[in-house]
Fold this sequence. Notes:
This protein is α/β, with parallel strands linked by helices. Helices cover 30% and strands 18% of the residues. It has one domain (24-225).
Amino acid sequence: MARYPIAWALVPQLCAAFPAGRRSLADDAATLLARVDPPPRVLGAEHIPPNGPVLLVANHYQRHGLWIGFPGAAITLAVAACRPDDPPVRWLTIGGIRLLQSRNRGPEVPLTRPILRRVADLYGMTALPPTGSVARSLALRSWMGGARDGAVLGFFPEGPEGRNRGLRRPSRGAHLLIQHLAGLGVTALPVAIYEEHDRLHIRFGAPEPANLDDLMPAIAALLPPSLRGPYGGA
């Protein structure tokens, strides 16, 4: 089975304790993946547009021993191979960790919010403030504004609830977010994350309309049948 050295995933958190302004997301993603054996396999990278605004919509594939940062790094490097920007992908990430993160319940773990915000700032990502806050609306507006700069945006519509047991229906608010980006003329790419033959796979699909009703089945079609969840007929 592939080895994912979780200790190296702590590097960004350690960097957050220092006052450095920015770090290279592409370089640190490469450092993280250099210690994965066997390395992730990337399929369909030819679908990544070489320029213009792009929205990557991926399933949140995570399990014990495989942190979502590893597939996120693999996606980031695949984009970096054909687009020169750094960060190659402007990720939308969680802003805090709850004790029962998979159910979005329970108290928030102390200090995780400022640490995750600091890590996001280091890499040009956007960590989401609390639901319903003005800060959250402003953060989302800033993140989506990257489309006007021709950036690649990335997010997981399942939110932190996604796991390795199959695709789940999108989190609340994902429909509105994608609808807004569709109005900006953003090209959307479905991305499937899964493990096969003890190896992490990243599979990019063909461009799709920025419509979650189309994108979720498109992600499902890229996944092995056992991981398609409620989209099993895809």
